[in-house]
Amino acid sequence: MRQSFLAALAALQETGALPRRCDLTNRELVRELDRSPRATSAAPTFGWLSRRFERAVYGQAPVEMAEAREAVSRARSLRGGLSQEGG
């Protein structure tokens, strides 16, 4: 879960859709992305990854294999979508 979230975050930062700032919480990053004209299609996916990451890491909720696979799939899809958008 952590790696999927971090891969998506890195892709968004590399394209300039999100700032490279360590002082923003995950929720603040989701809000920033909602406002970003550079990655509007990525916002729902990043929001999903962010919520699952927080639940697993901070809430210490177990992650089922299907959910982990979904996270990897969504992170890959997000990165691919950003490439297609030219960002």
Total of DSSP H or I helical runs spanning 4+ residues: 4
Estimated helix fraction: 55-70%
Tally of structural domains = 1
Structural class: mainly alpha
Beta content: under 5%
Write the topology of this structure.
Elements: H1 2-14, H2 26-35, H3 43-57, H4 65-85
Task: Please describe what this structure looks like.
It is built from four helices and no strands. With 87 residues, it is mainly α. It has one domain.
Key features of this structure:
single chain; 87 residues; mainly alpha
Provide a short characterization of the protein structure.
By secondary structure, the protein is mainly α. It is 68% helix and 0% strand. It has one domain.
